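Please check our next protein.
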Amino acid sequence: MELLLKDVLNLSPDEIKNGKIELNTTAGTGAEYFVDRWLRCDMAVKESGITDCSYWGWSGNKRNFYPGQPVFSFIQIGYDEWLFISAAVIKDVPENARAEVEPIERYKPFFGRVIVNHKRNSPYGGYVFNIENRLPTIVVKEVLPCMYSGEKFEGYDRVHLPYARLKDVFSGRILPTYYEALKKVTGVYCLTDTCTGKFYIGSATGTEGVAQRWGNYLSSKHGGNVKLRRLYDEKGDEYFEQYFTYTLLEYFGLSYDPEKVKEREQYWKRCFDTIKNGYNDN
């Protein structure tokens, strides 16, 4: 059964009758895509719903909005895919400028999280519509567990994250599928000190896979390893946060024999000679 946007927004009859919906693609013909502009905004700005991606008050000499109207703003992220980024009541419409708005508080938890499917009649047609004409046909594709980041998990063979991005993944700020994917595999990984070029090779064999082991590094930085602890005592938190990256070298199912995972760990230690030239001590 399809989930419709009207079921998520739960609009009042007055909001349906008087409301507008805007489907924004680019900031003019051949100009920057609004999704790229939105992705560069600070998290607090995205959460507020007040960005420079919405609520342009005029189309030539035609006014798009009037004071008192609720407006629901979407930006294009795929051919027929749109991301809900704001909902607000129009307060004023200065000539040839963005409208002055007041965000609707009850919709803020959905900003940047609801993705819908909707086909426009023409890719070059108007972008502001009466919501009552569009609402019955707009299907919710997905409600994300966290703010849209423009990225997705691309496979275990491409897991390579600097500390800051790993922290954002584990906190749920970005790439929710990444964390879930890392919970589903054991494996051999490499920590790289990009300041010195030294490696540390380790393995993850716990019940929650690579995510469990990398979570230990996020909380302690050194994960209990002798040489990494020594480096931490000397350099502190900031060094690890600035210079360390996390790469998955090999991955296996959670039921894979832990001893075989450790055999592969020893193989990679020999390949990179990390006991002599890196951070492994055994």
In short: The chain has a mean pLDDT of 92.
